[in-house]
Amino acid sequence: MIIAIDGPAASGKSTLARALARRLGLTFLDTGAMYRAVTLAALERNLSPAEGAECAALAATLRLGFDPEGRVLIEGEAGEPAIRSGEVTRHVSEVAAHSGVRRALVEAQRAVAAAAVEAGGGVVAEGRDTTSVVFPEADLKVFLLASPAVRAMRRAAEEGRPELAPAYEADLARRDAHDSQRADSPLLEVDDAVRLDTDTLSPEAVLDRAAALAAARRPG
Ligand code: CDP
Hints:
The protein has nine helices and eight strands. It is an alpha/beta fold. The strands form two sheets. The chain has a five-stranded parallel sheet with strand order 2-6-1-7-8, with helices on both faces. Strands 3-4-5 form a three-stranded antiparallel sheet, with helices on one face. The longest helix is centred in the middle third of the chain and has 20 residues.
């Protein structure tokens, strides 16, 4: 079974996808972590995030994997917490806008899903293009919504720095705009996605709804 969780930055995609994968016994696929991993590797190699060809070549050759908890491995080494640094966060949308980078990572994401399905399981994939581009044939598509203020508050609280919420709101707005306006695979709410507004639902309520939808659509 393939489930795709889409939506803007910090709308709760990772929280839902991780919990849903655990509940359903499926593989959690964090596509954002892969874009972050390529961005980190590019910065470490002094490549400019603006250089599409160089970033694409790196994305095609960098060996990415996942540990059993679904945390990204870069050339076999833990990508966390370095992939969440402020510097990576500032540059990731620019790196993710290059078509060559997206081609390489989408291919890798489909390979992870194919292997999981082949093994009798499946994936819960999260990321802004998973419903529209990566898995258009997903058994279930969910689009998470949350207001910018709520998303910024959650992100800041996660890091134990609630005073940073206003700065985060500006960063989220910038990334939303960049992700929505890019030519290749913009953030998009597809017609056949189920919309869940997380401003008004607790994380548990969102999980329960998504799990019920998944149970109804489980193939075979
Ligand atoms: O901070 P947040 O959890 O929302 O972002 P993330 O999932 O870690 O992804 C970081 C960035 O990678 C996003 O802002 C997008 O620019 C890019 N991305 C993408 O283009 N396509 C995906 N499927 C996932 C992430």
